[in-house]
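> call design_seq(struct)
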């Protein structure tokens, strides 16, 4: 198994004007110009991607899209393609965030089409999975995640997801101020890793990293990141504040 560098991703969701996004990117670049022990990636809204990419260009801080449509071009008003994300400077993209699934009706089949687009273009996909509170209470968590992974990754095999990222984000923890406990997170991450290898037959040599997301804050990130099964975090709200995002990155450096 190849080593898995801790990965911290800031998902800015629908926040930040272009000037604010650029200021934040500039501050991050100044702080993390030569860090080799943690990988930092930010996912600004589409409108800021190109401007931010110019700031990140010669730095180790990576750029991610939050979403895209699976066709490469054409009459799809309001959408952007994966080629456009790449053209704007993205090396990563989120796919299947629970807000996309619940608010915009994204199915596992749609997610799978997007996964193949990212694959074809060599963009690192961050595939989000996770259960709702109702599903957890009904003890369906593992079934839900298994379905999301098997359908979302359908048609990929062997080493093909090398360097990809799975983000476990329990829906009940996102933006809730309540994170899953380190024990809950470890149990699910272990399940995901096993399922990738034994259930879906991916090679154990792949470097796929498994992140946790859902109310990650400076006061819980250290504890979560110290778990052996946790390869990084996907941070929403706390990534909008420079100090708290840096505190989380620093806890990844110390983990
Ligand atoms: P949160 O969001 O950190 O604000 O809970 C996480 C996410 O949705 O990726």
């Amino acid at each position: 198994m190849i080593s898995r560098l801790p990965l911290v991703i800031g998902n800015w969701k629908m926040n930040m004007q272009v000037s604010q996004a650029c200021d934040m990117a500039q501050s991050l670049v100044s702080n993390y110009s030569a860090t080799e022990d943690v990988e930092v990636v930010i996912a600004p809204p589409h409108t800021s991607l190109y401007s931010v990419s110019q700031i990140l260009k010669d730095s180790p801080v990576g750029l991610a899209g939050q979403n895209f449509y699976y066709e490469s071009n054409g009459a799809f008003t309001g959408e952007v393609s994966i080629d456009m994300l790449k053209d704007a400077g993205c090396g990563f993209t989120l796919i299947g965030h629970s807000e996309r699934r619940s608010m915009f009706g994204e199915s596992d089949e749609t997610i799978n089409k997007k996964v193949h687009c990212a694959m074809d273009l060599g963009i690192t996909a961050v595939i989000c999975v996770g259960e709702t509170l109702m599903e957890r209470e009904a003890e369906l968590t593992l079934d839900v995640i298994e379905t999301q992974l098997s359908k979302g990754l359908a048609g990929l095999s062997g080493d093909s997801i090398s360097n990809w990222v799975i983000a476990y984000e329990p829906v009940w923890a996102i933006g809730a101020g309540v994170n899953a406990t380190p024990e809950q997170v470890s149990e699910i991450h272990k399940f995901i890793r096993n399922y990738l290898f034994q259930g879906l037959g991916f090679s154990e040599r792949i470097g796929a990293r498994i992140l946790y997301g859902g109310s990650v804050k400076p006061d819980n990130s250290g504890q979560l990141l110290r778990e052996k099964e946790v390869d990084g975090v996907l941070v929403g709200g706390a990534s909008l504040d420079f100090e708290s995002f840096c505190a989380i990155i620093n806890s990844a450096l110390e983990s």
